[in-house]
Amino acid sequence: MVLLIGSGTGILLAQPPDGLQRGQSLYREHCMDCHGTAGKGDGPKAPFLSPRPGNLVSAATSAKTDKELLRTIAQGKPRTAMPGWKEALPEEDQQAVLQYIRSLIQFSRSPTATPPTP
Description:
Blueprint: E1 3-7, E2 10-14, H1 19-30, H2 32-35, H3 59-62, H4 66-75, H5 91-104
Antiparallel strand pairs: 1-2
Helix pairs in contact: 1-5, 4-5
């Protein structure tokens, strides 16, 4: 059973409990060589690609909607080494990869202190 859930960046199909693990497995198989283990665009193939692979945990990528990221996963990025996966991966697997990519994003507080309240 697949459910629609809202996320801060759009609508994402809820994955079965093993969806995150499936996404991790697919990411390792298809994405890690270019995007790296932590999604920073620093995989073993990255130095040999021009332009370099995207940083999947950057603020710019994090701000993209699920719909935008799923479109990139499905269609790829022109004039880059990023292929489209729509023919190789079913939509459910693309959703699982997106779920795993979103799990890589770790927000942290700024090291600066917050100003005191008056």
